[in-house]
Amino acid sequence: MEYYISYVAAVVFIFVFRALETCSAKQITIQIPKAKPSDDGWYGYTELQSCGYSIGNSSYFEFSVKTCTGAQVALMSGPMDNYQLYEVVISGMDNYETVIRKYKGGMTMIRSHGGMLDCSAFRAFQIHWDNGVISLVRKCRLGKWLKILSWKDPNPRPIRYVGVTTGSWASSTWRFNQNVGENQDTLQDIQFETRKQKGPNYYYTHLTDYQYKMGQQTSITFSVKACSDIYVALLSKDTDTCTMYEVIIGGYGNTISVIRRGKNRYNYVKKPSSPADCNEFRSFIVSWPRGVVSVWYETKVGDWQFLMSLRDRKPIDVRYIGMTTGKAASGTWKVAL
């Protein structure tokens, strides 16, 4: 069988724990407790946008951290800590080794040795990304910044989100400034409506009509206000007739959510659920790293719950995205850029 279906949230969300967050107008402080060990070694990141941090047009992240070992920063294309990210591990292995990885838990691309963290004092760092060059910079005692290591990715990914963790090896406290200001250029969400369609067929609104560019991302975040039948097409080409994954959230009168391989094809995944709402916007994430198509929904601000997942052993090369509410409902959409 070509498809392996998994409803287990552990595909990406193993070890995700709720950080204790204290947000102010200028500075954010996050306390992350030491997580319980996982049988398969996975760990989760606290994504910083939930506390007000936004990359905007910046190409670096400045922060201070107080921990004994293993301060990890994920530079992500999407808001989920899937495999498609850059991972900077500061003084892991009992405050000894610092590395840069191209994937979560992946192969080390470059390393440096020496302890830079302190259990009882904050240490300041910057992580830069520019044209595929990932660099870690440390603030020294005299106030000067010293580059620790740097690595260039020949096939760079877009970086839109930042996550932090110390996993199961330590607790930690992080400090950083909100990167949102009145003078900062920020991208606005795409907003559009889909009408209830008539006739034997249904058609997708393609995000390219709104100048949405995919880049190398493997997830999309959006909100929608609709009574049912929230359709998302992950397309290989910019047409409704191409090879695609079809995700339906709250279909069949807001009773079942499904994942298909092809438009109006067999339901490889069926999950009883009622996530749609006629009167309020509901937020969702659809991701597709390495052929694993997964769906999450937001129960409250910053709290994402796993809904369903499909693992495709012959992954589709997703290049475009379409959205519709088909023949059963109308909807108002907001798509995060």
TrEMBL record:
Can the keyword Hydrolase be found in this entry's annotation?
A: no
| Record-annotated Farnesoic acid O-methyl transferase domain positions | 55-177, 213-335
The record's annotation in InterPro entries points to: Methyltransf_FA
Residues annotated as signal peptide: 1-25
Q: Name one Pfam family in it.
A: Methyltransf_FA
Query: In its keyword annotation, does this UniProt entry include Signal?
Result: yes
Keyword line: Signal
- What superkingdom does the record give? Eukaryota
Name of the protein described by the UniProt record: C3 and PZP-like alpha-2-macroglobulin domain-containing protein 8
